[in-house]
Amino acid sequence: MTAKKEAKEIDMGKGFEELENIATWFESGETDLDQGLQKFERALEIASTLKKKLSDAENKIKEIKKKFE
Amino acid sequence: MRVLQVSEFIEIVNGILRETLSGEAFAVEGEISGYRVNQGQWVTFDLKDDKSLLNIFMPLWNLDVPLEDGARVKVYGMPRIYPKYGKFSISAERVELSGEGALKKALAALRLKLEKEGMFDAARKRELPRFPRRIALIASRESAAYGDFIKILGERWGGLEIDSYHVLVQGQRAPQDIVQAIESANSHPLSFPLGQGESNYYDVLVMTRGGGSLEELMAFNDEKVVRAIHGSKIPTLVAIGHERDLTLAEEAADVRGSTPTDCARRLVPDKRDVLYELAMTMEKIEGYVVAELESKHVILERAMSAPGVWITGRKIELEGASARVVSSVDSWLDQLKQGLTGKMRLLQSLDPKAVLRRGYAVVMDKAGKAVASAKSLKAGDAVKLLLQDGEVGATIDGGETKIQPKLL
Q: How far is A57 from chain B (nearest CA, A)?
């Protein structure tokens, strides 16, 4: 499904890192508006994916059956 | 006389022993010699004092303390004759190290030894990833610790892939079980889909169990277990027992949790916190974008209104200039007027008639010319005196003429 595809596309750690980078870019006082809007759009995309990931996903538990040899 | 078969006899003796000794709890204390483990499951040793010797037999899984020859122990169990060999022994249910704090002493010595080897060095401890995904969990599946850990994990976070390695967490076989699980997890090829640049290993190796007595927690003080944790390629998070219990395995781990619940908290953040942080970050970014747009808007507006402002400026300059011209003309005229008045006053003061009004008279000859010198007149000359209101004729009577000498 799309959720799984998105989960593959944006890893939680990397997503957060990218978001922080975008925030830092804005903080540094860059003034290229086109680039800024582009980054803003990307930030929105990441944020909504991470949010969805956080809200939807369940933890999966698998038993390691074989008596580890 | 009663004749008994061997089996019957042994059965009777064993019965008597059971009946006699089961009434009260007892333990036999002595020193170990000839300690052996047979077929990986049976422990035998001799328990001695100065005068006597007793055979001890026990299943390995009943043993939860490290034993060696020379150790002083208390053995709990039932004595009996083993029918097959006719051998008298105690079948032990439990063995305790004897002497006040013997186990603690052994543990302290091991801690010191491992510490000297640098097993607990803070400098080599790795940080756990902030958002782990693939977890190897080493615990007893039936334990409350397992249930607590999974429950808290579910409340805090989602999307974890947890591989559960079920192990014995106490008893003589527990250390081996645990070491195998650690090694297995460290070499386990992951079946989860890998993200870009992700390693083929678990993100974190978690080991946990609930509280217990020092004896029950001994598997986590086992030297082999401590070395396996220390040697794990995967970052380790270990939480054993209650808050106050500190096992060597925990000290060797990269991160220590105080309880299974705390262990879950240290493994993953609370998604509510992360959602909040996410919202705050987005708010911050949005704020920057809005501010940026506003500043662009201001610049644009300034640009749009600039020509109008310029014209207004020129207009004001023009008005100023013309006002300056008008006022300078005015003052020029004033000056002119003042000059004129001054001259008129001067002229007025030069008017001879003004002198006549003060009582002076002008003497004129017949021709009507003003006489300015006494020398030009002699007796009998007819003159005219000009006064302020008219003329009157007169004749010079020839009186003395005085000529004033010129001073210069």
A: 5
* Whole-number Cα distances in Å, B221 to B114, B215, B245, B252, B397: 11, 10, 11, 10, 165
In chain A, what are the domain boundaries?
Answer: 2-55
Q: Are B226 and B252 a contacting pair, CB within 8 Å?
A: yes
In the three-class reduction of DSSP (H, G, I as helix; E, B as strand; rest coil), residue B80 is classed as strand
Domain B6-99: top CATH class: mainly beta
Cβ within 8 Å of residue B325, ≥6 positions away:
none
pTM: 0.60
Cβ within 8 Å, pair B188-A64 = yes
Cβ pair A33:B292 closer than 8 A: yes
The predicted complex's ipTM stands at: 0.76
| Same-fold call for B6-99 versus B106-119+132-268 | no
Strands, E assignment, B100-254: 134-139, 161-166, 204-209, 236-240
pLDDT in tens, A27-60: 887 778 788 888 889 999 988 888 888 887 788 8
Residues in chain A within 8 Å Cβ distance of B133: 11-12
- B positions 160-179 inside 8 Å of A (CB): 160-166
Tokens of B48: 């001695």
Rounded CA gap, B58 and B36, in Å?
A: 11
Nearest Cα residue in chain B from A45: B282
Contact A8 B193 (CB under 8 A): yes
Q: How many CA atoms lie within 13 A of B103 on its CB side?
A: 19
- The residues spanned by each domain of chain B are 6-99, 106-119+132-268, 353-395
| CATH for B106-119+132-268 (3.40.50.280, 3.40.50.300, 3.30.565.10, 3.40.50.2000) | 3.40.50.280
